[in-house]
Amino acid sequence: MDHPNGGTERSTQRIEAFSDGVFAIAITLLILDLRIPAREGSDAAGLLSAILGLWPSYFAYVLSFAMIGIYWANHHYLFKLFAETDHGLNLLNLLLLMFIAFLPFPTHILGTHWPDEASRPVAVTFYAIGLLLPTAAWLAVWLYACHDRRLVRRELDPGFLRKLTLQFIGSVAVYALAVAVAVIDHRWGMALCTGLTLLYLLPPRTPVYRHDGEAPAHVAPAPVRPGWSKE
Prior knowledge:
Elements (H helix, E strand, L loop, with lengths): L12 H17 L14 H9 L2 H25 L7 H16 L1 H10 L6 H27 L11 H27 L1 H14 L32
Helix pairs in contact: 1-3, 1-4, 3-5, 4-6, 5-6, 6-7, 6-8, 7-8
GO molecular function, one term: potassium channel activity
Organism: Microvirga aerophila
Keywords: Ion channel, Ion transport, Membrane, Potassium, Potassium channel, Potassium transport, Transmembrane, Transmembrane helix, Transport
């Protein structure tokens, strides 16, 4: 179907399916860093000590698993706000997925180098950067889709869109702050990263629809979903 701007309308189904695959692979790769300690004799106490000594890797695994899981859930939420996709959005979404797929690497660095006090600040800072990158790409996806209501559903309330924009900008700002804080004090930087992850476990904003006007003919009306407001 021809788009008024000369492009081609596309369903979001393919981009969502591809994204789901990347999220699934990235979240699975995290487990590869949790390896059984090398066997040293048959001392059960020694094995237990080695297993418990991997706690930094366990912590990094859980934190990153939660983060990728949150991105996956919110990605599904975000694309339900889009009526269609185009080439520009596809490229920005690829950038987002690239940073998601990259996350297992800083996770490995954090888990491996946390026990070393000398390298711990660098490991935490690098991990914070690893969390900042997909957040910035997420904002880019949103701003591109929202510009002149290019791809978002036309029936969505403008106030709701503004609130989401401010929320996503705030997320980038706070993660950038976490990187800066980690450079100064890695403990507070790590605390910020952990706190933000816990904060994002909260459910996203319920979409709000405006009362006036009909959606353009080329935009399919958004389905009413459980828990979604059509006020």
